[in-house]
């Protein structure tokens, strides 16, 4: 089911993958360079509904409008705030999630919106090659139970670069920022996606 939502940043879109007997909603948005067709988002949408978690894939207004470049962070936050009533309106706890830029939005707005938890896929800890430009404060300030899923070779921040903090971290070995793994790696793409899907499923179950 596809739902369009009017926000102060423009028209957003939610693609629902509903659980038959949902106990949680996982709302996840895309990054600045892609949409909800990202491999990790597809894997979660295909797995979690069978485990009692409805998945809402959220497209930010700039993406719905066909623009190529994401707007400023505050505009992304505005779009996310605008879709939240439709997400929370299911009457279930909502995990606020996203990949890359979407993960930053989820962290920045979690407490304000009353999110039950945050799922940060490929959190962009810093721009590639610029570790001094850390965004760790956003992650550490999420204020709710948080799971980071990070590729082992993510140029925006490898797992070992993350500071200690009140969050859990699952590493996808050899994965890049989009969780693609090299052909020479000892695990394939399906195995990498299974690590993500199984890890998020187990973590969501722990949020009871």
Automatic annotation (TrEMBL):
A Pfam family matched in the record: Abhydrolase_11
Residues in KANL3/Tex30 alpha/beta hydrolase-like domain copies: 23-203
Keywords: Hydrolase
A GO term, aspect molecular function: hydrolase activity
Matches recorded under InterPro entries: AB_hydrolase_fold (IPR029058), KANL3/Tex30_Abhydrolase (IPR046879), NSL3/Tex30 (IPR026555)
Source taxon at top rank: Bacteria
Keyword Hydrolase: yes
The protein's name: Hydrolase
Organism: Streptomyces populi
Lineage of the species this protein comes from: Bacteria, Bacillati, Actinomycetota, Actinomycetes, Kitasatosporales
């Amino acid at each position: 089911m596809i739902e369009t939502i009017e926000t102060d940043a423009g028209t957003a879109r939610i693609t629902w993958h509903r659980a038959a007997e949902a106990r949680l909603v996982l709302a996840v948005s895309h990054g600045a360079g892609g949409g909800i067709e990202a491999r990790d988002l597809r894997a979660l949408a295909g797995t979690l509904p069978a485990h009692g978690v409805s998945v809402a894939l959220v497209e930010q207004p700039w993406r719905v409008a066909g623009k190529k470049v994401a707007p400023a962070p505050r505009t992304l936050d505005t779009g996310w705030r605008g879709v939240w009533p439709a997400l929370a309106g299911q009457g279930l706890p909502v995990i606020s999630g996203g990949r890359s830029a979407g993960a930053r939005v989820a962290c920045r707005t979690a407490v304000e919106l009353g999110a039950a938890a945050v799922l940060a896929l490929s959190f962009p800890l810093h721009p590639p090659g610029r570790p001094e430009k850390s965004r760790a404060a956003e992650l550490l300030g999420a204020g709710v139970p948080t799971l980071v899923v990070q590729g082992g070779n993510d140029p925006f921040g490898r797992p070992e670069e993350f500071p200690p903090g009140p969050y859990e971290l699952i590493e996808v070995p050899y994965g890049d920022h989009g969780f693609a793994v090299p052909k020479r790696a000892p695990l394939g793409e399906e195995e990498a996606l299974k690590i993500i899907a199984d890890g998020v499923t187990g973590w969501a179950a722990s949020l009871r």
